[in-house]
Amino acid sequence: GNRIQVTADKPLSVSTYQQWLGNGELARHLPVEAWGRDYYTMNFYQDRYGSSGQGYKYRPGQIVVVAAYDNTVVSWSPVGATEQGRDHPSVTKKGTGIVELRKGETFLIKSKISDPPDAYNKDWVTDLSGTAIRSSRPVGVISGHTKVAIMRYPDVLPPTGMFATEAHFVRNNVHDAMLPIEMAGTEFVTVPAMYTSARVTGLNNTQFGIDDDRGDVVRFVALEDNMTIQSMRQNGDGFKNIVKLNKGETWVETTVEFATLWKSDKPVLVGQYGKSYAEILPPTFGVNGDKGEKPLGHPTVKSGMPMLQYIPSVDRWVNYAVFRSPEGTDNFFNIVFKTEDVGKIKVDGRGLNSAFGGSMRPLQGSPYSYIRTPIGAGDHVVESVSEDIKWMAWTYGSLDGLQQGRAYGTPVAIDLAMPCDDSLDGKETIVCGDVEATAKILPEDVECGHIFAIYAEGLNNYELVVDEAFSSGDPRAKFWVNVLDKTKDAEANILVISRSGKFVRKTYTYIADKIAWEPKSINF
C-alpha cells in the first residue's frame, strides 16, 4: 500500500520512477542509513486547471514523511496552513503538528487549499517551501507538488475558443527526495535542462497567461540567519550578491538560462525545477469554393511538463554512479567537473572527450566545465579513473509534443559522508564461534561522530544480527555474529562504517570440532 521496503546484503541505490502519460517523475532516494532528523522542504504554490463550466481542479503542494523505526515522533512547522486528514487536524501557518509513526508508516502533509479557493491561486503565499520537518529518529522526506505548472500557465489551453480544454498537460507531480540539513553546502553549480529542438521558448507572453518559459527555476532554502547568496557573473568577472535570507526563508531565481556557480556564506539547500512548455499552434486553412479560405482544424497546443531535482553541493560530488534512462522519453545527461579532469572521467567505458567532447563548455570565472547532451535509453555507468576525481551529474528527460507527455529529473548520486575528526573502536566477546560486539565512536563527546551502517561483506555459515534499537546516526551499536551450524566451519567479514567514511573491517573464523576414528574398523 503505502511503502515498499528494499533490503540487500550489500549497499545498493534505489530510485522510484513514475511513467505514464500525463504524469511522471523520478526520485533518487537516500538509504535509511543516510536519513536525518531535520529537513526543510521544497514545493511550489497552489495551482489549478479547468474551467468554471466544467469545474476547477485545485492542486496543492505535498510532503511525504517515511519512518524506518517504531516510536518515531515527527513534527512539522508549515509556512502555510496544511490540510486536515483522517489522522490529524489542520495545522495553521507557523503552527506545529505532531504525529507518531511506526516502522514502515508514511505520513502525507498537503497544503490547505485557500479559502476561497481562487483567493491566492498561483500565489507564492501558498508555497509550502521552507516547511521544517523534525523527528526523534531518522526519517526520509520526499517533497514537491501534486500537480503544478512551472511557471504560471492558463487554466485551459488553448486559452480561448470553443476548443479550449483543461490544461493538465503542462502540469506534473514534481518531486524528489529532500536532503537532511547535514548535507547542505555553500558552493553549487547548476546546469540548465536540455530539451529537443521541438521546444522553442521565448515566444509566448503574458497575453496568453504564460510566464517566461526560458531557462529553469533555482530555489534556495536558508538554514541560518543573515545568509547571503551570490552567483558568478556570466562573463566570469566575479560574484554578485543575489539575496540575504534568514533561517527557513526561501528564494527562487525564476529564469536561469546559463550554467551558474553559486556561493553562500552559510549552509543552504538548493533545488532546480525544469519548466512547463506550451506552444499554441493556429488552425490550418483550406479553400472553401469561391468563398475563400476556411479553417480546417482548431488551435492545437504542443506541450511539455516540469520536473524537480535536488542540487548537491560541490563537497558532495562523487566519483562513481549508475543510473537508468527510461524508454519512451527524450533523455538527457548533464555533468559538471573540474576542467582539468575531463580526461579522467568515463561514461559507459568511454572518456568524456571521446563520448561528448564537442559538448564541453567552460564555466567562466571558475575551475569547472560542464556537458549537456542527449543520452540513450538503458543502463549507464559514470566513473572516475581515481577516487579523488569528483564530479556531479543529473539524469532527466521529457516527452514533449501534441500528445500527453511526462517529465523527470534527479541527480545520479550523492556523497553521503559527513566530515568529522572521529574514529571507530569496539570490544567483542567470542564464545564457541559466536560473537557479541559493541562498536562506538571516539572520542565519545564528539558531536559530529555517528555510526553509518554495519553490514556483512561476506557470510559463510554465519548470520549477522544488528540490535533493533540501533538507528543509523547513533554513536554506538551492538551486533551479534552467530554460527548457524556448529558442525561446520564458518567465516564472516563484517564492516562497520562511520558517517565520516571511516571504517573497521573484522573477519571472524570458526573451526568446527572434528572427530575421526582410528582404525576405522576392527576385525574381532
Could you list some keywords that capture this structure?
40 strands; mainly beta; single chain; 524 residues
Overall description:
With 524 residues, the chain is mainly beta. The protein is built from 1 helix and 40 strands. The strands form 11 sheets. Strands 3, 6, 7, 8, 9, 10 and 13 form a 7-stranded antiparallel β-sheet that branches. Strands 14, 15, 16, 17, 18, 19 and 24 form a 7-stranded antiparallel β-sheet that branches. It has a 5-stranded antiparallel β-sheet with strand order 29-30-26-32-33, with no helix packed on it. A hairpin with a 2-residue loop joins strand 34 (423-431) and strand 35. The radius of gyration is 27 Å and the shape is globular.
Strand and helix layout:
Elements: E1 14-17, E2 26-29, E3 36-40, E4 47-51, E5 55-59, E6 61-67, E7 72-77, E8 97-101, E9 106-110, E10 132-145, E11 156-157, E12 165-166, E13 175-177, E14 185-190, E15 216-222, E16 227-232, E17 239-245, E18 250-256, E19 260-274, E20 277-281, E21 285-287, E22 293-295, E23 300-304, E24 307-310, E25 320-325, E26 330-338, E27 345-347, E28 350-351, H1 352-356, E29 360-362, E30 368-374, E31 378-384, E32 391-398, E33 407-411, E34 423-431, E35 434-442, E36 451-460, E37 462-466, E38 476-483, E39 490-498, E40 503-510
Antiparallel strand pairs: 1-2, 3-10, 4-5, 6-9, 6-10, 7-8, 7-10, 10-13, 11-12, 14-19, 15-18, 15-19, 16-17, 16-19, 19-24, 20-23, 21-22, 25-31, 26-30, 26-32, 27-28, 27-31, 29-30, 32-33, 34-35, 35-38, 36-39, 37-38, 39-40
